[in-house]
Amino acid sequence: MLLQSEFNLDGYTVFCHGLNDIGNRRLLIYVASNIDATLVDLPDTFNERLFLILKSSGKFNKLLLGNIYRNPRGT
To answer: Could you tell me the sign of the dihedral formed by the alpha carbons of 65, 59, 9, 15, in that order?
Structure first.
């Protein structure tokens, strides 16, 4: 069993998906601690994905960031 705390890095917030899901890929995204990041909740029809909204006070104030695992064998 993997724990999210095992992946902590100073100065970063870690977002994880599937750490304990047998048969699925484990996904991680590290975001600098000074960036406001929110996990996007999506339906579980496709489990091997992780999406975040990153917010800033600049001209482009929101960014959708995604991490999707695609099996190279297409299965």
So the answer is: negative
